[in-house]
Fold Lipopolysaccharide export system ATP-binding protein LptB.
Amino acid sequence: MPEPEHSAPILEVQDLGIHFGGLHAVRDVTASLPAGQITAIIGPNGAGKSTFFNLISGFYQPTSGRIRFEGEDITRLKTHQVVARGIARTFQTTTIYKELSVLEGVMIGHRVRTRAGLFDALLRTGRERHDEAGSRLGAMRALERVGLAPQAGRPAGALTQEGQKRVGIAMALASDPALLLLDEPAAGMNPEETVNLMSLIRELVTGGLTVALVEHKMSLVMGLADQILVLHHGQKIAQGTPAEVSRDPAVIEAYLGGHAHGGQMGQRTEGGAHA
């Protein structure tokens, strides 16, 4: 595994910020994500983690700052344009089409790479047929990467929680991203499923992908991440290896009060909300 400090960044943000009325959800964040590695974004509830993801993926337009991906300024691009550039994401709640087959659902994730429009679809033009075949092939490749190719014909809703999480990841992979953003991928999963997910994420990175994830399960974060970016009240307070971050005084202070220290950083308090 390459040392984090020697890896060139695939994504850089400079003075990134967004406010909603008088609330600064993210403020003046300058950070980078090393290519070919796993970066975990952590922080107490309300730290701005999911908002940070929404800015990178084009769901929100920043109030200030810049976002560069593979050297290109993508700050003002819309979501579908960001996906087309090579950034895909999953969400806290598994978003799949449970009534469709696993293959059909993942094919939807590939359509962003196709050129056929509504006219082509209505008339079943040659372009539409060509793109549909390409989407089917791309979806099967994505399913193979997550270990679900044998389940391609099953209804997605019939899979286990872990299986449905893998379908969601496959939908993102079908767009052929260079950077995959995973928003709480282990939410709702038991310890065995979490271990399986960790193995899958590591396999994807070994295969050439860069991953950034927001996660509350610190056993996953500390066992998987190459780098950790810590947000608190929308601001970056630390970034480094798991060992460096775990002993950073600012990080320890951020988790005191409402969060137990000693390996439990980032766990929700009773009734706590997602960040």
User: Anything to note?
Assistant: The first strand starts at residue 9 and ends at 20. The chain is about 35% helix and 25% strand. The chain has two domains: 1-86+177-275, 98-176.
